[in-house]
Amino acid sequence: MAVSPIKDISVNAPTAMREEIVYARPQALTDVHTHYCPGCTHGIAHRLVAEVIDELGIREDTILVASVGCSVFAYNYFEVDACEAAHGRAPAMATGVKRVHPDKVVFTYQGDGDLASIGMGEIMHVAARGEKITTIFINNAVYGMTGGQMAPTSLPGQVTTSSPFGRDLRLCGAPIRMAELLANMDGTVYAVRRSLHDARHVIQAKKAIRTAFEAQLKGLGFSIVELLSSCPTNWGMTPSESLDWIRDSMIPTYPLGDYKIAPELAQTRK
Questions:
Q1: The domain spanning residue 75 has which CATH number?
Q2: What region does 88 belong to: left with phi over 0, alpha with psi -120 to 50, or beta?
Q3: Does residue 4 lie in a domain region?
Q4: Number of separate domains in the chain
Q5: How is residue 52 annotated by DSSP?
Q6: What pLDDT, in 10s, does the model give residues 140-172?
Q7: Which residue, 25, 103, 164, 165, shows the most beta carbons closer than 10 Å to its own?
Q8: pTM of the complete model beyond 0.85
Q9: Cα separation of 217 and 213, whole Å?
């Protein structure tokens, strides 16, 4: 997008109009209307991934494997080759794509219901095998697309459409912390958690996404970036309130940080 032209409105002769582009849509991001709800931070995550793809110059060599969930139409938003996986099966499909095309950059884009529930077995074995793919994991603590039910990532006491009295740890167990869990797998070379709730953390999230893709370009192994994301519609909040809830409620349960970084990536992160 461009700023408005600046004019000299003094009594002197007008100067030439000036225009400066301060931000442009990444080439890897399509120019289409989004289906995401107002205030949802999926759009921010998409933009960051697209910016990284452009900056690394890999747009023509990138393949997206989209998941089932709110991100089911992710293939509409990226100017890269893409395919759609069955619910939870994006890591398995990405494994096949990467093994057939080892020269391509393959990434999955998955929500918490998809990755941490029905797809738990898939993601664990991808990490165990050290498949050279990248996963962008959106954690918004609910099943977003199907109506806001309790997810494996829902917080203790969190009210959802299927836990109207709050998540009861005695009945439902504790939230699953995927970044920490996957960091323990031998095949994982990069596992971190970031947040999208304010500008500073968005910048940090982009750096992590870039490092995750660079891990794949170096042929090191499996990489994952978990992003704490908002869902104002299913949380019953305004967009502003939902960002505050990430900061005040989600981060204490899901601490931000680096859970595994291969030595080969240490220089990349500086």
A1: 3.40.50.970
A2: left
A3: no
A4: 1
A5: H
A6: 999 988 888 999 999 999 999 999 999 999 999
A7: 25
A8: yes
A9: 6
